[in-house]
């Protein structure tokens, strides 16, 4: 039998992420990102664009898995990492999901007011 594929996509209004950060500060970041992701975003010229892209990535992978942001999937189930060329991918932190990071392909983009993530999951 061939590979079964699932997709997930999410778009986030960066202004909404910025408002959440202004309201809740680091508590917001610590709720939705891992420490490594926070460190990565803090080094970027526009930190909130990078935060929004990671937010969208986690939403998109939760859709590809089929759980949404519930039923065992949480903000810290996965972590977005970048290779030396900047290409994003996932590190799966919650092994109970039953997926491996190399089975998930991720594309991120942000421009203007929006960040978008697209996920292709091979099952």
Automatic annotation (TrEMBL):
UniProt EC number: 2.7.8.7
Keywords on record: Cytoplasm, Fatty acid biosynthesis, Fatty acid metabolism, Lipid biosynthesis, Lipid metabolism, Magnesium, Metal-binding, Transferase
Keyword Magnesium annotated: yes
UniProt-annotated location(s): Cytoplasm
Residues bound to Mg(2+): 10, 59
One Pfam family linked to the record: ACPS
Catalytic activity, as annotated: apo-[ACP] + CoA = holo-[ACP] + adenosine 3',5'-bisphosphate + H(+)
GO cellular component, one term: cytoplasm
Protein function: Transfers the 4'-phosphopantetheine moiety from coenzyme A to a Ser of acyl-carrier-protein.
Family, similarity comment: Belongs to the P-Pant transferase superfamily. AcpS family.
Protein name: Holo-[acyl-carrier-protein] synthase
Organism whose genome encodes this protein: Prosthecochloris marina
């Amino acid at each position: 039998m061939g590979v079964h594929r699932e997709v997930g996509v999410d778009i986030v209004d960066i202004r909404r992420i910025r408002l959440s950060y202004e309201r809740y500060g680091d508590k917001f970041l610590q709720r939705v990102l891992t420490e490594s992701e926070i460190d990565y975003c803090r080094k970027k010229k526009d930190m909130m664009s990078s935060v929004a892209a990671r937010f969208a990535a986690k939403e998109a992978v939760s859709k590809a898995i089929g759980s949404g942001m519930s039923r065992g999937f949480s903000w810290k189930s996965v972590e977005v990492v970048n290779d030396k060329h900047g290409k994003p991918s996932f590190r799966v932190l919650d092994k109970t999901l039953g997926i491996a990071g190399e089975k998930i392909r991720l594309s991120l983009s942000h421009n203007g007011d929006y960040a978008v993530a697209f996920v292709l999951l091979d099952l």
